[in-house]
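User: Good morning. I'm curious how FE2/S2 (inorganic) cluster would be positioned relative to this chain. Could you predict the structure with it bound?
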Amino acid sequence: MNREENQEALTTSTKVEVLKNGPLLVYGTIEVKDKDGNTETKNKTTAFCRCSASGNKPYCDGSHIKAEFKD
Ligand code: FES
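Assistant: Good morning! Here's the predicted structure, ligand included:
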């Protein structure tokens, strides 16, 4: 793998992290398709709601704190 290919592999890789008592974090560039079929490209870090209290699903809006989400 040459340097350009290696750099592309690094920038296109994704990492998923579950935050204790909080959202699911996805690191990297991803395409999100909503329930109506609309797609949106997200870069860097995207937080997805795990608690179901968000007013901006599927994304986390911080409502898990007020909802005292535990998991
Ligand atoms: S996890 Fe943050 S609002 Fe649901």
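The longest helix spans residues 3-12. DSSP finds two helices and five strands in the chain.
Let me know if you'd like a different ligand tried.
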